[in-house]
Amino acid sequence: MDDDETFELKIRVSRDVYEKLKALAEKKGFTDVSTLLEEMVKQQLLVPESTREAELEKLRQKLERRIQDELNKSLSVIDSLRRQLTELYERVDHIESVVKELSEKKAEVKQPPPIQRGKTYKTGIERLRDDKILFESTLPPRIQRDAFFSYLEREGAVVLKLSRERIAVDKSFWEEFKDKLFKTITTNKEDEIKQVLGEKGYALWRALYDDNLIIYDPKSRSWKPLFKNPE
Asked: Which residues form a coiled coil (predicted)?
């Protein structure tokens, strides 16, 4: 078949399509629509395979960039939400700490119950001065423990933090107890210890001993503290 042989092709299009093709032909400098169509067909058929692949590769890269851009936008939104959530948690923690502090202050300034039958009610620190020691396990459930022990400590009491509970000790009684235990007592026999310390001192000694906070040194025949000495 002769390569220079030509054939006539006819197509039917709507007026709207024809007008658009005509306008495009004028824009690109073609004399008529037929010449425009002929050139477009040649471009499509004569473009090398490598050129089409290059065009496809460009299109693929363009799509990848578009997808990556959209993904980055989504990730930035997620990061923003994460930061906002972290800030929210921090604010909640702050509010909880403020509420706790206000609750403690409220417990401190709580008015004593009204006097009935002429009976005088003592404050917590006054009771401790009378009782000498107070074990956390003996407090009634209605007492807010953290606030109560903080109050006693501010009022001058010694608060010992054992593994199972806290013990509040009157300051004067604590100094007397340390002097007897660490300077006077020279034995590890419980009946003799109880005789020197008394009932309440013995109860405090027992709690410290069971919690491994004191130890007896047989060489020096004296008791030694294994805790940081509270002031």
From this structure: 53-105
Angle at CA 106, nearest 5°, toward 101 and 112? 150
Residue 37 falls within a domain, yes or no? yes
Q: Is the pLDDT of residue 209 over 90?
A: yes
Cβ neighbours for 111, distance < 8 A, ≥ 6 positions apart = none
pTM for this predicted structure: 0.48
pLDDT at 135 over 80: yes
Cα 208 to Cα 45, 76, 95, 104, 137, distances in angstroms: 98, 57, 37, 28, 15
Distance of alpha carbon 214 from alpha carbon 134, whole angstroms: 19
Using 50, 70 and 90 to split pLDDT, how confident is the model at 88?
Answer: confident
Q: What domain count does the chain have? A: 2
Domain that holds residue 33: 15-46
